[in-house]
Design brief:
Blueprint (H helix, E strand, L loop, with lengths): L1 H15 L5 E15 L4 E14 L4 E16 L6 E11 L1 H6 L2 H8 L2 E4 L2
Antiparallel strand pairs: 1-2, 2-3, 3-4, 4-5
Amino acid sequence: MNNAGSEIAGKVVYLIAPISGRNIHYGMSSKDLEFDDNKHKLTISLIVSFEARDWWRDVPYGECQISGNLEIYFDQSNTYAKKAYFYWKKRNNHIVRVSKSKDWKQLDNGLYVSFQ
């Protein structure tokens, strides 16, 4: 779970603020944990926060936050994670100010990482 959260947090920062992103933090909430035995899928809430700026648009450093669901798919024995998807639900204003619309097109489709 931590590996998936870390990988997704890194991808979010690289997508939104590849140069200025710093002080990355992420957290997962176990109270929203769901497991689907049929799909070998674990769903958990994930929040990613980091500092970023956009020098060209005169946006100073500030805290960016995005949260949503992290879906982790396991192998048939439910032992090893095979892949993970992140679908965002909420974001703060600063992340919108430092990002570009093309970044949100990719985030709207979900971020994907593979562990194979």
